[in-house]
């Protein structure tokens, strides 16, 4: 059985296309009392972006904080807030949810668009195809590129019991607005780490055995674009990074990340590191597994003037170390092509 | 304004995935009296493919003939046939239309799926966004790759007055089933010419000025895959050709073919040449415009043992020649980057 990939329904790409968002949303507004919910990364609260949001009278703007990765509790809180205001005031569900930000913000928008149409807590739906009702219309406007969240059928959430996505065809966005100008101001090292989420995913997938020609083509193009973006000073770097992320995301259906992602999960779980930076920290120690990829990654770091955080693990107690190893080992498919022991994982972690 | 691209909703890719078609369609059948219409290229009538069609009691199989490119008259005839049988017998519209074949068959499936829900003749809807009602569910199973018809928002039709597509978001397929095994038996030179439809489109787009980073990435990957398929004897050639066609089709929203397509339209109009072979015949004489591309194209021909038909134009009368020049010149955007005269076009045609 091959996975039947659900695609994002509509994609607009181009420098400045964010200014079309108003027209795009207008087509989704059922009448002049229609309401849209804008979830926007609160790093933009002080800036001018909010003046460009195509909001109408009944719309709702919520600044979301993604200093920590999204939790089911935060999704529940946002959903309650939306229902209280919009359902309470207008007696109806919102017409749509728009997420403006990076991977975490987009994941929150996916989750809230699902949860306004599904009862209970987001935690009940962590897993595969547990969602009963389709989401309301949902749209993403990435301001950081590399996670692939704009195209993936998953919203990754940390719940009370587990870190696991809500995987569903209903999770996939109805619309994405890819405006390279919106990622132009993303600061390093965040921009670099998010890009590396994409690059490392592609390197791991291309070295793995779980890959078909469709995903191979997507991964190759994505990796090539990452090279152009992070190793050269050529034109259209922002557009290329957006397309790299799109292609990387498209590859996910028939590809699989490897060892780096498994180890990075351990770091995230115990140290709370964001996924992108966790991947970069780990990847730097994986030259035994990916000699060419790690060499190129280091060239990218040098070209971009990035210094990785070091000595993250030194102060950890034994118990935390064992937990970290447990979390890494749970990711069985990621270890598929390599013999691994707890000692080997400990040895790798101790370098970080 | 950037075009807001409507994507195919679901894509399944993999060797042998055609066997999943039954399950995929089952999810679209509203009840046990649901009816699906299979439009299948009649080249498969003698073979074993029909035994693999996941047909149910109330389904309808129509063998379609695409020796000539699709006409609005043929679409009307097929639509009447479908309505007479299915609406007549069951008092309801079909649940879906499945096109199995090359670009022309897929275009017929798109057009019939639209016309069962829209009144009048297909000729009334040739143009942009003239369709009023959404199509019924429609699905494509390509058995030839390169046209991009599986992903494009167009069904190209020759009408009583013009050759012009029905361009609409509603035209886009709900599902495509990309099984490389199904194109494995496509005979040369047809396979080659269809592949060149893709290759030449990409070369022309990449040399043109109307291109953004999204389409550039799609064109580059598509062209690279065509190179692998037609210049090397590497593995997975069928899968790569399918992905090349998919990527080429994805590029169409923000790219534009050039001189070759304009001249090829003239050949098609006057001589009835299919689009793929027309493109190849023309491209061989365009080294002034695309020196690298034409060189590579000739290497591909040699590697694949293809001989182009020659002396196609020698016997044409003056009037036909002038018509051919008229048709080529109508395609104004295609001549955008070059100074052109009727004499120059005549000179090129006379070589063919």
Give a description of the structure.
In chain A, the strands form two sheets. The first copy, chain A, has a six-stranded parallel β-sheet, covered by helices on one side. In chain A, strands 6-9-8 form a three-stranded mixed β-sheet. Chain A is 42% helix and 13% strand. The first copy, chain A, has 352 residues and is of the alpha/beta class. Chain A has helices at 21-26, 72-90, 103-115, 190-207, 213-231, 237-251, 259-271, 275-283, 291-304, 318-330, 342-351, and strands spanning 4-6, 10-13, 36-41, 60-64, 96-101, 127-128, 137-142, 154-158, 163-167, 175-178. Chain A binds chain B through residues 1-14, 17, 20, 24, 175, 178, 180, 212-214, 217, 220-221, 225, 236, 239-240, 242-243, 246-247, 254, and chain B through 1-14, 17, 20, 24, 175, 178, 180, 212-214, 217, 220-221, 225, 236, 239-240, 242-243, 246-247, 254. Strand 2 (10-13) of chain A pairs antiparallel with strand 1 of chain B, so a sheet runs across the interface.
């Amino acid at each position: 059985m091959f996975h039947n990939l659900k695609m994002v329904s509509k994609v607009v790409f181009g420098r400045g296309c964010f200014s079309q968002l108003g027209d795009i949303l207008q087509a989704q507004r059922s009448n002049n009392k229609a309401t849209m919910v804008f979830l926007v990364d609160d790093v933009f609260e002080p800036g001018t972006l909010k003046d460009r949001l195509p909001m109408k009278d009944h719309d709702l703007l919520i600044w979301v904080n993604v200093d920590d990765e999204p939790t089911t509790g935060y999704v529940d809180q946002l959903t309650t807030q939306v229902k209280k205001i919009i359902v309470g005031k207008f007696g109806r569900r919102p017409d749509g949810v728009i997420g403006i930000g990076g991977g975490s913000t987009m994941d929150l928008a996916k989750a809230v668009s699902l949860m306004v149409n599904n009862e209970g807590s987001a935690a009940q739906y962590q897993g595969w195809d547990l969602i009963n009702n389709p989401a309301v219309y949902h749209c993403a406007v990435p301001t950081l590129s590399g996670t692939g969240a704009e195209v993936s059928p998953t919203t990754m959430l940390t719940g009370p019991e587990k870190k696991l996505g809500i995987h569903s065809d209903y999770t996939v966005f109805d619309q994405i607005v890819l405006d390279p100008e919106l990622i132009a101001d993303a600061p390093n090292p965040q921009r670099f780490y998010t890009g590396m989420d994409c690059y490392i995913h592609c390197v791991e997938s291309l070295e793995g055995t779980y890959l078909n020609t469709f995903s191979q083509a997507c991964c190759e193009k994505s990796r090539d674009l990452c090279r152009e973006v992070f190793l050269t000073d050529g034109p259209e770097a922002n557009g290329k990074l957006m397309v790299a992320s799109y292609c990387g995301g498209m590859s996910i259906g028939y590809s699989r990340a490897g060892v780096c992602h498994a180890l990075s999960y351990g770091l995230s779980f115990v140290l709370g590191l964001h996924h992108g930076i966790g991947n970069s920290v780990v990847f730097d120690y994986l030259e035994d597994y990916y000699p060419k990829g790690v060499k190129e990654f280091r060239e990218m770091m040098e070209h971009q003037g990035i210094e990785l955080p070091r000595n993250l693990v030194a102060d950890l107690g034994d118990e935390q170390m064992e937990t970290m190893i447990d979390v890494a080992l749970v990711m069985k498919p990621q270890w598929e092509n390599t013999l691994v022991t707890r000692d080997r994982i400990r040895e790798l972690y101790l370098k970080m």
